[in-house]
Amino acid sequence: MPELLRKPYREQLVTWIGRPCHFQLLYKISIDGCSASTFHQKCDGQGATVTVLYNTNKTIFGGYLDQSWHSNAGYIYDSNAFLFRLQFNGSSDPLRFPVKNATYAGYGHSSQGPTFGSGHDMYTFSGTITRSGKVFPLNGDFNLGSCYSLNGQDVNSITNNSLQVTDLEVYRVIDGPGQTVPDLDKPWREHDGWTNETMQALKDSLLDYKPMTETSVAAANILLIGQIGAGKSSFFNSVNSIFRGKITSKACSGSFEHSVTTMYRQYKVKDFSKGKLLNFRLCDTRGFEEEFALDAQEISFILDGNIPDRYQFNPLVPFTPDTPGYIKDPNLKDKIHCVAFVIDGSTVDVMSDKVQKRMKDLQVRMNHRGLPQVVFLTKLDKICPDVNDDVKNTFTSTAVCDAVEKVAEVMGLPRAHVLPVKNYESETKLKTTVDILLMEALQRCLDFADDYMDEQLDKMAAEGKNVRAED
Ligand SMILES: Nc1nc2c(ncn2[C@@H]2O[C@H](COP(=O)(O)OP(=O)(O)OP(=O)(O)O)[C@@H](O)[C@H]2O)c(=O)[nH]1
Ligand SMILES: [Mg+2]
């Protein structure tokens, strides 16, 4: 059964419990269903337990009981009990709230889920809770502070105001260090590792990259598109820095009320150690805003290769076939071969309907052309402190995993198409781990671009067109 409670949080609980111990999962509502009878069936008489709730506000809290749960409609005396908060708003922020009235530490009742304190301090749910999507809207009630010392905290600062949980787990606390400690930090996505060798292998593979050999298309075109300030230009700068061998910022990036990028640029990347141009182009666009969207027709022109490099976007006068520089008969080499939506991971939860709609509208045009789409999910460092400390934690971070799921859902794309990255922004030196994440995302994009070109060639062959006419 997949367990959510991460290793650092387990270690924190062990410290609080105050004796060497480990945890065995007894009950998990996302697997077993959320019902008081199942909870009691699985957890009564099991000795010490920890109950952990994970809510939709990325906050993790719960309670510890040294004594067994029961279903006898009576209180459980426990002088060692405590309530706790482990995480708040996606950030680790542990606090322990000791019991102050041991007589009422817990309450066992056949029709109630885990319940702590009289009053009750933490009453999770009663009866059966029906899942709504991925969320269980618990029907309990929290009157925190009656039997537990809150040390200045309140319901809001402990639960982050939500009883909408994605999971609730009860673990049995077993004395002694775990013999076979399960792999608690199992990544949510397979990953090749973070060594210099991995980095070098990725770099070599990108250096060797050539679009499908049957065509004369020299470079794969990847379109970077998304809201202002999402990190489109920074993505190019980051990739460019990797091959430059030092941090550079060729494309203007920054934060401004309107898009910093105003010109369409098809950036090439040069490897400075080998003096070689790489065979892909990163096409940077103006970001869209709440009140300003790229003209849909303009996007079609970009996708089809009608718009020239260095075209100056003008929100007042959209691009037309009469605009100077219009490329009249673009062929496969001019077209976009893969679209990367660049989305700021730290704003995924607050993405407005308007922006979502903008992206959907663009997707319609892309789907129409059979264009592969990925998401570069940026600013991971801002959504998870562990990732901020070290990018290595990306694939074990629940906050990142949640953001990936959310974006995949919003964009209607498979999760595997959502690629977490962290751009270089304040660093002064390259880092192997950051390079790896960026190059993996780029490599995926190029694989998809190849698929697209392959498909286009099949189509052209089927239509009797001379593929070599692309020359
Ligand atoms: N912390 C953090 N900041 C980032 C990241 N990527 C970009 N930024 C910052 O976000 C701001 C906007 O980045 P840009 O690359 O200019 O964004 P853009 O999508 O090109 O924006 P426009 O050109 O205005 O549409 C800059 O201040 C960057 O330094 C990231 O991964 N982490
Ligand atoms: Mg930009």
UniProtKB/TrEMBL annotation:
SMART domains: TLDc (SM00584). Pfam families: TLD. Coiled coil: none annotated. Residues 1-174 form the TLDc domain. Gene3D superfamilies: P-loop containing nucleotide triphosphate hydrolases. Belongs to the IFI44 family. This is TLDc domain-containing protein. It comes from Magallana gigas.
